[in-house]
Amino acid sequence: MRFSLFAHMERWDENVTHRELFENLAELALMAEAGGFETVWIGEHHAMEYTISPSPMPLLAYLAGQTSTIRLGAGTIIAPFWNPIRAAGECALLDVISNGRMEVGIARGAYQIEFDRLAGGLRATDGGKHLRELVPAVRALWQGDYAHDGDIWQFPTATSVPKPVQQPTPPMWIAARDPDSHDFAVAQGCNVMVTPLMKGDEEVADLKRKFDTAVTNHPEVPQPQIMVLRHTYVHPADDPDGWRPAAEGIQKFYRTFDAWFGNKTVPDNGFLEPSPVSKFADRPEFAPESLHKTAMIGTPEEVIDRLRYYQELGIDEFSFWTDNTLSHEQKRKSLELFINEVVPAFR
Q1: Which residues pair with 102 in a beta bridge?
Q2: N or C: fewer beta carbons within 10 Å in the chain?
Q3: In sequence order, what DSSP letters do the residues of 193-246 get, joined into one string?
């Protein structure tokens, strides 16, 4: 099983500068490369201080110049916000800059608040139509001249300039949850990334079953890969209460997600207050004690045990999701423990 890092610049304190957050993210990425991680993933979010990444491309292009082995994943770009020609060209340019280390994940999008500002109020739930049209169009543009007459985009003959280094195409990943999205991804020859969020490992097993069904339904397609993305925090074995700051931090992250996802309040200079804890009194999955069990939180041995289960399920890649509201120093120590004490168990 491979390991990767999934990170954004998180800003919870206006006294912390964006430059400092950028340097922190770069430090974690360099640690991941030195620790033998396969890929660093950076997503796309707009006008939100708690997940800062208006485009993963410039951040990954910078990291391309600072690294030599780790792969660089745009994970994920939001399909309705990208014209296929732009997506193909920018991804290919990152592949050229990194000399063939680019990977791209594509998602339909989730936050209506972003769609209201970037997509003319298109319903976020309709973003899947854009994803299904974007993926084959980008692949065709990478191959050469291509004219497109779709339901969403129409353009005369064009091509990706530059062309990607990786041939026939760089790896593409689809963020999937329901059976139809798994089936589409596999049918297109794309890898699959899944996020169990606040659900337990039974959700990981269920998502793997959906993936396996899609693979079985498409024997004509070479075996794709599946990646699990999960909030991760490793604490020392001699600190039995070390899980609590992480669980409470991740709870704050999800309460903030809820505030943005609800789209009921106008943001104040890129910030929204987390939804109050009282809102989730009848939602036990939000409790720190539950998040301790569902998020990948624990001592090195506890994390190793759970990851061995993922390995037995046939998970190809586990992505260490750093977003958790905690300080950079806490994140750095957690990643260091994971690299030094967890990764060797899988080598």
Answers
A1: 72
A2: C
A3: EE--TTS-HHHHHHHHHHHHHHHHH-TTSPP--EEEEEEEEE--TT-TTTHHHH
Helices (H), the chain: 18-34, 56-66, 84-97, 112-118, 127-143, 179-187, 201-217, 243-262, 288-294, 300-313, 328-337
User: pLDDT tens across 37-47, in order?
Assistant: 999 999 999 99
CB 231 within 8 A of CB 250: yes
User: What confidence tier does 300 reach under pLDDT thresholds 50, 70, 90?
Assistant: very high
The SS3 assignment for 77 reads strand
Closest by Cα among 165, 42, 39, 143 to 84: 143
Give the global pTM.
0.97
DSSP state of 274: P
Rounded Cα distance, 61 and 99, in Å = 11
Per-residue model confidence (pLDDT) at position 231: 98
Distance CA 260, CA 49 (A): 11
pLDDT at 105: 98
